[in-house]
Amino acid sequence: MKFAALPISCLMMLAASSAPRVIEAQASTSSTQTYTTEFDGNENPLSEGGAWTHTGLDWTKVAKSNGIAYGTQTGNDGYNDSYAILSGYSPNQSGSAQVHLIGSIDASCSHEVEILLRWSDAAHSAKGYEVNLSFDGGYAQIVRWNGAYGDFTALGAGSYPGLKNGDTFSASINGNVISAFVNGTKIAEVTDSSYSSGNPGIGFFRRDCGAGSDFAFENFTATGDTTVRPMPPTNVTVQ
């Protein structure tokens, strides 16, 4: 059997296709951590199957009942805020909740709800960022807890007058930028690089008036960004 001679152009194409090729390999993955709760059932302290923890002995704990989570602080013992935190979150994280607000809180008395970011605790230490909102929206604060009881640093403030029952309060940290929002409107933002890890959570503070359930959370969603950025190009030779 005879074979027809191939044109020179075809021979060149075959040679090129059989030569080693160099490609660039990159890796990039993205996923999101999410925990959502409607605070069903009754618990004191808040646990939800171990999802929430509280190790600090110098502060009070969070409870839930009737579809809300609230603080157990009496208001007589200074800065022993009630708090609970989640675990296993990446540094870039956010929290969002609908506020439960009764219509008759003593205006002369502090009541706050708090979203915690990059939080960690031990028996006598609580560290992280507290983003709080007052019951009347008259002020919002971003505060860094430094560890010991009563040791905190105010980093920035804002306000959202006319806060209502059912409004959405949220906060996020991305890199060193901490932001607070009500109904999607940014009300405060600061930068701080003190903490590079920790977990989201919730907290509550009040003085000696009313009850913890007067200003509380009806639900809560925590989100973590676990995006892995592309690796530097790697040359791979393919035969």
Please explain how this structure is put together.
- With 239 residues, the chain is mainly beta.
- The chain has a single domain (32-225), classed as Exo-inulinase, domain 1 (Jelly Rolls).
- It is 5% helix and 47% strand.
- It contains one helix and 17 strands.
- It has one helix at residues 8-18; strands spanning 21-25, 32-37, 60-65, 68-71, 82-85, 93-101, 111-122, 125-134, 140-147, 152-158, 168-174, 177-182, 185-191, 199-206, 215-217, 220-225, 234-238.
What is the name of the CATH topology?
A: Jelly Rolls
Report the radius of gyration as a whole number of Å: 26 Å
Number of domains: 1
Task: State the order of secondary-structure elements, H for helix, E for strand.
Answer: HEEEEEEEEEEEEEEEEE
Quantity of strands, as a count: 17
Strand content: over 45%
Classify the helix fraction into a percent range. Answer: under 10%
Can you identify the CATH class? Mainly Beta
CATH homologous superfamily placement: Exo-inulinase, domain 1
> From the helix content, strand content and strand pairing, which structural class follows?
mainly beta
Low-pLDDT windows of residues: 1-28, 234-239
Number of helices: 1
Main sheet overview: 8 strands, mixed
As an assembly, this protein is single chain
